[in-house]
Amino acid sequence: MATLLHLDSSLFPQEGSVSRAVAASFRKAWEEQHPEGTVIHRDLAADPLPHLDGTAASAGFAAPDSHTPEQAEAYALRDELARELEEADAVLIGAPMYNYTIPSTLKAWVDHVILQGRTAGTDTPSGAGTPAVVVASRGGGYGPGTPRESFEFVQNYLGKVLGEIMGLDVEFVVPELTLAPVTPGMESLVDLAETSRTKAHEAAETHAKNLAARFAAAV
After folding, report:
1. Which residues cross the membrane (predicted)?
2. Is 191 helix (H, G, I), strand (E, B) or coil?
């Protein structure tokens, strides 16, 4: 049975969050294909992880049998998060753009889950090859050729960290202009925003179905 690791990080509920809504489309299609599968869901906004501190960071570089009680406790969380990633057949991440980058709650997950010599820092990280779909929603437009192209630090960052550092097979679904319906001055972009959102839902569903077909063929 396939296992999906699903991370949400939007501050808002699904009714007010494009990243949550699009991720939900992926998950619905995934669960239809894997009715007996497992979904590990972490809502990083509702149940945030502690930010990485010195104790947790140092524990990642020390042998477990040398850990202090404080390091052992901190490392237990990092190990749990790494195991969730390692045991997943696919990863789904909702990553809305806040102030031009990812939410700090998602950054906390990244900081904990990167363990040098295990999930990163080796020729073959422990999660290497795992497909990951990232729903990178944003209120404006940051694509190539747009005035704010250089402000895009969601795809650029996660593509490098998840893909090049951790070895995941990363695909992005990017609903843009999500603020157009509620922002004065963006009225002319509402139709484009709706088109982008519709395409994002369709792309999310397609990714889920394609991954299901890939796993079925491998059985």
Report:
1. none
2. helix
CA distance 114 to 204: 26
* Annotated binding-site members for FMN: 10, 17-19, 137-140
Strands (E) in the chain, as ranges, are 3-8, 38-43, 90-94, 131-135, 169-173
> Which pair of tokens denotes residue 4?
């999906």
- Per-residue pLDDT, 219: 64
> What pTM was computed for the model?
0.96
CA distances from 137 to 19, 51, 116, 172, 174 (A): 6, 23, 29, 10, 5
Phi, psi dihedral angles at 93 (to 5 degrees)? -130, 125
Q: What digits encode the pLDDT tens for the residues 63-119? A: 999 999 999 999 999 999 999 999 999 999 999 999 999 999 999 999 999 999 999
From the annotation, which residues make up the binding site?
A: 10, 17-19, 137-140
CA distances from 130 to 109, 154, 171 (A): 17, 20, 11
